[in-house]
Sequence to fold (251 residues):
Amino acid sequence: MALTPKSPTAPVPANSKDTAAQDTFLREVDDALREDQLRGLVRTRGVPIAAAVIAGLVGLAGYLWYAEHQKAQIGSQSETFTMALDQLQAGRTETATQTMAPLAKDGNVGYRAAVRLVQAGIAQQQNKDADAAKAYAEIAADTALPGPYRDLAVVREVAINFDKLAPQVVIDRLRPFAVPGKPWFGSAGELVAQAYLKQGKTEAAGALLASIAKDKTVPDSLRRRSRQLAGQLGVDAVEDPVAAARGDAGQ
Fold:
């Protein structure tokens, strides 16, 4: 049987030494190409890339500094406000006013609101009711301040002007706050109950006072006062008679 001759176009296999040399050459060419591309990238994109990295590092450093700065400022403002309150308790009203004055301008939003409320309270203690009411009204209207501070300002303003306001006006303004669970439920609720009494609505007043008396988040002095007034209106607001009697006896 005759052998089939090989096609003259078939590739001639290279020996292993030639193949290895060819692979090495190709890798060197590939590495050289990649290095050349990298140099080209650095030449054309190096500055923007470096700028982006530096900007990112500067931004991170700036954020970390700002966070620490804010923490330090808040700590300093807290110390200043506490010092002012101590001065007030010691009867050094003018000194306290001067101490807290910078916070009203440059303090964070919470301290700005707190200082303005204290300043209004000082005016009220000095029998400057008109000035105090005006200050409370301005706080209540300042939408940049946190809601609970503004709500308290409304309650305080109404309390100062209570005798000048129609009972229904008091009720309408304070009804949203005279709800159990609200921050100023006790103070607002007591004023609303008094407004109800002016209208002759003793049942509504008694029920509201009883709710205040049973709310353990309300200050004890206000709870006792509400319980006593509710009792005078014929509403039993005592949950624990023994404890209530012991608490009242200690006054």
User: Anything to note?
Assistant: Residues 165-251 form one domain. The CA atoms of residues 126 and 139 lie 19 Å apart.
